[in-house]
Design brief:
Blueprint: H1 2-29, H2 34-38, H3 42-65, H4 72-77, H5 84-89, H6 95-114, H7 121-145, H8 169-184, H9 186-198, H10 206-234, H11 245-270, H12 274-296, H13 310-342, H14 350-381, H15 391-413, H16 419-444, H17 450-471, H18 478-502, E1 504-510, E2 515-518, E3 521-532, E4 536-547, E5 550-555, E6 558-562, E7 567-571, E8 573-577, E9 580-591, E10 594-602, H19 606-634, H20 642-647
Length: about 650
């Protein structure tokens, strides 16, 4: 009975969103009529839709906790022996539940925007109309093709269990944060379409759009980072990014969203780059729908992809078409008018040039990733066979552009430096980068790499420029977000360069008391034992790790057998040594005490997670600053923007 209530609440939530969409559309088509007055109900309807969808999701979670295997979705993704935290994570561990959560997240963003009283009335009605329409379309898709409340009669006696690869703390955090950011870019999309529909000048909405873009970008960033951390710890191959098509599906909108934020800075401050902002808002949301199609259509096989039916992919393509084509047509017809009325007759400033350079580089990186991701799918769909585009393609094209983007950020941040100081900073960074690369090759016994040296040089250049900018800024809240954002980029590039340049590995057959040597580390086999988990049994070995002759700890990699799924998993053993990891995985078992072991050294891998966390703080800090600034402006106490002053 409870699941039927959840089903009804899902229908009521979709109906509420549809009603809000209809009222908003009528108020746009027939202004100065009673429809404009009835449009005032749309905030209430958006809130009702969110409440219904939230309650429906809570009922689904309750069904998991209570092992209601009469629901097909629960029976397919849970088990009575599954620990409770993973039962909650299973709510979004499969296609149906994760899509319901996406619709819930979108309805939450929509309700927040609908109750925002700071936007012009006509513009706000248009934004609500767009968001309500998207909630309706995705809600109908969820109800028709992805319904988690379908019954299975007779009820299953036991569930099939959650995929063992998903039984990790990363699954509890990664999907919700990723979906909040992923679908959250519907808000900048709605703002852009509302501007095109109502011909509202950018100065009326750009600052609000920037706040939303920063928040959703921050969620998407941390969602991607936790997913990368999950893959690193759970999949057992020791990598943090594999250029998997599903990984790329989340990277595509992140790149254009980063470009969107840079353009919005200029649009919000002096009404320039308006066309770029409108187009990037449309493209970013289109990429989220495209990414959803890649993950859920069944066109590829991946550890990240959801099992799916062909109709699900068709439905997503229909939604993408319905939203994207009218949006691009509106942009082609009306974007020039908005750009013209917002353009200021001010002299060209280097800040705008570097913002355009940043946006251009990020868009070029997006196109490289998109080509490498979609081309094999299109090639196979045309019946031409199979084609694999792997890491060499992405690394040879994407990585150099990432390094160039760091240099571009350096020149943008250090625009107050004299040419003499700039040359000194670049020279110091080049020397530091080359010295660190040389020392790393000696310590880790790795070959010298020009790309690693260039990446380190770009990172140190950006750090020097950012620190200089901070100490010469007005020390208000405004520069903090940019400072953290650029520092996080430098740290992330530095971590990736050090990891790729100095990481090493060795595979060996090990038995009791046998040693493996790798760089300064010695790994010693100290025996094996059995362990019984809540829904699995595991055989693990204990390995002692020494560095330069001194023991620094132990690792316990294991091979797990999940009884219900009859699936074997390798659980890596990871020992942290300052900013580096000793990463060990088990392979085949040869006899009672002999295993195939793979030992990897991951130097400075934690810089990647530190950089991602700093990006999260930068995004949220920037959103809070712009919210505070807008609130002060409404009472005539706006804090002057140092960025605005520099641009003008």
């Amino acid at each position: 009975m409870l699941s039927e209530i959840g089903h009804c609440l899902l229908i009521v939530g979709i109906t509420s969103a549809f009603s809000s969409s209809v009222l908003g559309g009528l108020s746009l088509c027939f202004p100065n009529t009673t429809f404009k007055e009835t449009a005032s109900m749309t905030p209430w309807l958006a809130t009702l839709a969110f409440f219904c969808l939230f309650t429906a999701t809570a009922i689904l979670a309750f069904s998991f906790i209570n092992d209601d295997f009469s629901l097909q979705y629960v029976a397919q993704h849970s088990n009575s022996a599954l620990p409770t935290p993973f039962k909650l994570a299973a709510v979004w561990g499969g296609h149906e539940g994760s899509f319901l959560f996406m619709v819930l997240a979108l309805s939450g963003w929509s309700a927040l925007v609908a109750n925002n009283k700071t936007l012009p009335e006509d513009y706000a009605n248009a934004a609500r109309f767009v968001l309500s329409t998207i909630v309706t379309l995705l809600g109908i898709y969820c109800l028709w093709l992805s319904n988690p409340f379908l019954r299975e009669l007779p009820a299953a006696l036991e569930g099939r269990d959650l995929n063992p690869m998903l039984q990790d703390i990363g699954l509890i955090l990664h999907p919700p944060l990723l979906y909040l950011g992923y679908i959250g870019f519907a808000v900048p999309f709605a703002f852009a379409i509302a501007a095109l529909l109502t011909q509202t000048p950018a100065r009326a909405w750009a600052d609000s759009c920037l706040r939303w873009a920063l928040v959703t970008w921050a969620f998407l960033t941390v969602g991607i980072a936790i997913g990368s951390w999950w893959a690193y710890h759970e999949l057992g191959w020791g990598g943090w990014w594999f250029w998997d098509p599903v990984e790329n599906a989340s990277l595509l909108p992140w790149l254009t969203a980063t470009a969107l934020i840079h353009c919005l800075v200029s649009t919000a401050r002096n009404n320039t780059l308006v066309s770029w902002t409108l187009l990037l808002a449309i493209v970013t949301f289109a990429l989220t729908i495209l990414g959803t199609f890649i993950v859920r259509s069944g066109v590829l096989t991946s550890v990240h992809a959801f099992a799916s039916a062909p109709m699900r992919g068709t439905g997503l393509l229909i939604i993408l078409t319905v939203l994207l084509f009218p949006a691009l047509l509106l942009f082609a017809l009306r974007a020039a008018n908005i750009s013209h009325q917002d353009a200021e007759k001010s002299r060209w400033h280097p800040q705008r040039f570097w913002l355009m350079v940043a946006a251009s580089l990020l868009c070029a990186m997006m196109l490289i990733v998109m080509l490498g991701t979609l081309y094999p799918m299109i090639y196979a769909a045309m019946g031409l066979g199979t084609l694999s585009v792997g890491a060499p393609y992405f690394n040879s094209l994407f990585v150099p552009l990432a390094v160039v983007s760091a240099f571009a950020a350096t020149f943008s941040t250090a625009r107050g430096l004299s040419k003499h100081k700039m040359r000194i900073g670049i020279t110091v960074s080049l020397l530091v980068g080359c010295v660190i690369t040389y020392l790393g090759t000696q310590y880790y016994q790795a070959p010298f790499s020009l790309m690693v040296s260039a990446a380190l040089t770009a990172s140190f250049s950006l750090i020097i420029a950012t620190v200089y900018h901070w100490f010469n800024s007005s020390r208000t809240m405004a520069p903090i977000a940019m400072t953290l954002g650029h520092l996080s980029l430098a740290i992330t590039i530095m971590g990736a360069a050090l990891l790729d340049g100095f990481g090493s590995e060795i595979s060996a057959k090990m038995q009791g008391n046998q040693h493996v040597y790798l760089g300064p580390y010695t790994v010693t086999h100290q025996g094996s034992s059995w362990h019984i988990g809540p829904n699995y049994t595991a055989e693990r070995i204990t390995l002692s790790v020494s560095k330069n002759g001194t023991e620094i700890g132990h690792v316990t990699p294991e091979k797990r057998h999940y009884t219900v799924r009859t699936m074997n998993m390798s659980e890596a053993g990871v020992l942290r040594d300052n900013f580096s990891d000793v990463y060990v995985t088990l392979g085949s078992k040869f006899d009672s005490d002999t295993f195939a072991v793979r030992v990897q050294i991951k130097p400075y891998v934690h810089l990647l997670w530190i950089g991602a966390f700093m990006m999260l703080i930068a995004g949220l800090w920037g959103a809070v600053y712009h919210y505070k600034r807008a609130r002060l402006a409404r009472v005539g106490q706006s804090e002057p923007s140092p960025l605005s002053e520099r641009i003008h």
